[in-house]
Amino acid sequence: MNKVMLSIGHGFSARALGQHLLNEGWIVYGTTRSKEKAAALRREGIEPIIWPETNLLPYLEKATHILTSVAPNPDGDPVLHAYGEELSRGSFEWVGYLSTTGVYGNHDGGWVDEDTQLNPTTKRGEMRRNAEAAWSTLGLPLHIFRLAGIYGPGRGPFAKVRSGSARRIIKKNQVFSRIHVDDIAQTLYASICSPRIGAVYNLCDNDPAPPEDVIGFAAELLGMPIPPAVNFEVAEMTPMARSFYAENKKVRNNLIKDELGVDLKFPDYRAGLRALLKQTD
Predict the structure, then answer these.
(1) For the chain, what percent of residues have pLDDT higher than 70?
(2) What does the DSSP 8-state code read for residue 101?
(3) Is 89 buried (19+), middle (13-18) or exposed (0-12) by CB count in 10 A?
(4) Among 10, 150, 176, 246, which one has the highest count of C-beta atoms within 10 angstroms of its own C-beta?
(5) What is the largest CA-CA distance in the chain?
């Protein structure tokens, strides 16, 4: 019997996993909101579903595995609003929920792990914490993945550095954790192969680093001048971008290594950016 993944909100991270599953002979359904993206998914071998226009019940009945990447909103989780009861009655082998390390809040540069108390300091983090809790009440074989900042093909600093628009925003002692999309995919697959109901995993690399170092390294790889340094207090930034700097923490990833046996392909941003540059050149 074929394994069937229903990926709800089949975006950047889920697509990396989807390709791996297809190579393993799975059937993969992925939801999207646009016909253009649906056509792109079909070219990749994914069976696209325009959602929320399309009823997902037939696909929930076919699915052996569920992955949801849909972001919550102030009213809660859209997937649970639409299909919470049906999900709770399903018989799935594995359910994955993609969350964020933002649920931990600010720790002034200190370390957090999966046992750290959740204390989000942003509205986005608060909504994610609430969504995690809501999914956890359904009696599903749930696995929660708290993702750090995601980068990968088409999502990196090179375009901004090349265009001259990159800046090194300086905020004293600020660090961020990151994760390459390929390492997200391999961790999700490792969990699918070794499920543990109720598991929570942090997905990040080994090297929390100041954001200005990442931009500077990207410029070095390109052989371009280091972008100018701008103090955070006076930098022109969108409210969304500025809000990321409200939280400062280092995220531990020991559990995915010790329990799932994950060997990160890109253990730090240097390895990740070198690989991305080779892919684009």
Answers:
(1) 99
(2) G
(3) exposed
(4) 10
(5) 59
- Mean pLDDT within 136-159: 95
Q: How far is 85 from 71, CA to CA, in rounded Å?
A: 19
Domain boundaries, the chain: 4-152+179-205+252-266
Contacts (Cβ under 8 Å, ≥6 apart) of 93? 3, 64, 65, 141, 195
What pLDDT score does 174 carry? 97
Nearest CA-CA partner of 217 in 259, 178, 261: 178
Peptide bond between residue 74 and the one before it cis (omega within 30 degrees of 0): no
pTM score, whole prediction: 0.96
For the segment 63-85, the average pLDDT, to the nearest whole number, is: 97
- What are 223-246's pLDDT values in tens digits? 999 999 999 999 999 998 898 899
Would you state the pLDDT for residue 240? 87
The CA–CA distances, whole Å, from 138 to 86, 207, 215, 243 equal 10, 35, 42, 32
Q: Class for domain 4-152+179-205+252-266, per CATH?
A: alpha beta
Calculate the CA 90 to chain-centre distance: 25
